[in-house]
Specification:
By secondary structure, this protein is α/β, with parallel strands linked by helices. It has ten helices and six strands, in the order ααααααααβββαβαββ. Helix 1 (11-22) runs antiparallel to helix 5 (71-78).
Length: 255
Amino acid sequence: MSKKYINLFDKEKFAELLDKAKGGRSINKYAEECDISAAHISRFLRLMIETPPTPETISKLSSKAYNDVSYRDLMAAAGHIEIGHSAELGDLEDENDSTIEDYQQKMGRVSRISPREKISQFEEIEKKYFQIILSHLYEVDYKWAIQKPEGRFYRPDMIIDIDYEGYQRWILDFKATFNDRPFMGSFIQHVYGQFAMREIESTDKVTIAVNTDKYYEQFFKRPPKSLRANLYVMLIDLDKGKILKEEQLCSYDPK
């Protein structure tokens, strides 16, 4: 039988971190900024609650935390993750650990920023992607028109009608990252699977836009073998606000 991970809520540690996260603000002010009940925060600070807060609540608390108190710190004190835990083979085969998130929590590898903060950062990065692509379009010498992305199973970030080098439509998918950590191979397969579930014509140009060299290289190390698409990978420099390069990964000719 595999060794099970046990959630242990350290009330004292959590209260200490929460007080540190609050900083010099009043409980009411901190609660207002986090969109959490002040009474709820007060009960945690006074060690009156026996059960840990949910990851969603911790996400809210950490999003407005002072003094470098991180999402990961609060998750550990709440007992949702165990820092330094070494997973056994049986742990990885547990039917309850079917997601990457479950495995990362077992290993204590939870990001220091909360899911809410990540979403906000990704949205900002995607805005930059959009602005860079739009700036590029204003410099080209062919006609183009941005369309509203649609799709039931997969919806790209941008669809642009074009008339260039035999292509009539340009489909772009933004893949943002905060660091140089490469994609997992399964994630790349998921990206290809999304394209495989969409109607793609031979006159469509499909581009995966990334913002790090490692991400860029990972796609060329794992190219699709039988994807019916004119697929390209684009490297974008977010700091300089420009496209660095774009290369074709595979082609589609129905003839």
